[in-house]
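Example for tutorial group B:
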């Protein structure tokens, strides 16, 4: 008769009944274990996403109608972080737009920025 070892949940050390490859006693333990395992990556991603959402909120607040020119100082005073954006769009003329989700901007002369809403043709 084969000797069986008692299997335990990786999270709570409770006894496991069921499939031989079972690692957790339930969804709660599985989620707790994985959340703890990936906590550092989750915190990093959460911090970056908070910066991106704040940037988008600033762009949306300053430009509710679709197109507006503002001074760089105003963006900085609002707490805009120019180092974080979700994508870049380059026009055929070589102009570069930076986007935070669907709200974007392009640097103009004299420390000005034109704020825009992403159009359907911009991918």
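The residue assignment follows.
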């Amino acid at each position: 008769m084969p000797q069986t070892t008692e299997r335990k949940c990786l999270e709570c050390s409770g006894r496991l009944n069921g499939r031989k490859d079972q690692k957790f006693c339930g969804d709660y333990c599985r989620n707790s274990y994985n959340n703890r395992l990936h906590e550092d990556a989750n915190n990093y991603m959460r911090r970056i996403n908070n910066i991106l959402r704040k940037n988008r909120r600033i762009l949306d607040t300053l430009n509710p109608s679709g197109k507006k020119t503002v001074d760089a100082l105003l963006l900085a005073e609002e707490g805009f972080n120019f180092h974080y954006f979700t994508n870049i769009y380059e026009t055929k003329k070589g102009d570069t737009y930076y986007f935070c989700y669907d709200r974007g901007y392009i640097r103009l002369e004299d420390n000005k920025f034109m704020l825009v809403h992403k159009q359907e043709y911009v991918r």
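Residues 6 and 122 are 58 Å apart (CA to CA). Compare this with the pattern of hydrophobic and polar residues in the output above.
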